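Action item from last week, closing it out:
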Amino acid sequence: MANYKRDIEQLKSKASMFWPEEFSQKQSELSVIPKLLETQDQFIAILSVGVSSLEGLCKLIESSTFPANLFLKHLVVLSDFGGEMLQRVDTQFTWFFPEDSLEYIWQGRTRIHKFRKLPVSGTLNNDKLGISGKKLLRIEPFDDLKKDVMAILLFGSMSIDDETARILSKCEIGNYLGEPDKLEKYICPVFF
């Protein structure tokens, strides 16, 4: 047993004071913050372009080669409406959207987004959306589920149903699409 007793100095001389390089690399792969910071300017540039529809925004994103899952993750972070709240919306879907659609007012017109994949079977989570740490390393294109969630995050606060709009009040980013000055004022307090 005498061989196993060491004082502090002996332990310090043998100990690793920082994570080994492979652990640091693995952690950086799982952390989404560096990826979001690295792509923030491109995300803001896309939001600054004027579009006339959700489909137009999706086409713009796809033509920019910006991954749909990464764009969705930016929206989740910016709106502060993450996994837990999206799960609540999904589990209470028929209460929020009894007609299986989001009817909202945007750019002075009433619009309708007909949901194609919501509600999901099972649990709506970051993995299903492709926005968890590991999945963000992969490029995922738009699918109907991502478009459905994007519609909620962008236009939920503009719902013509007052109670839905109140509960989804954080989902207001659509108000700033194509308006760089407003967008900058909205985003800067969140990111900085």
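Closing note: The longest helix spans residues 33-48.
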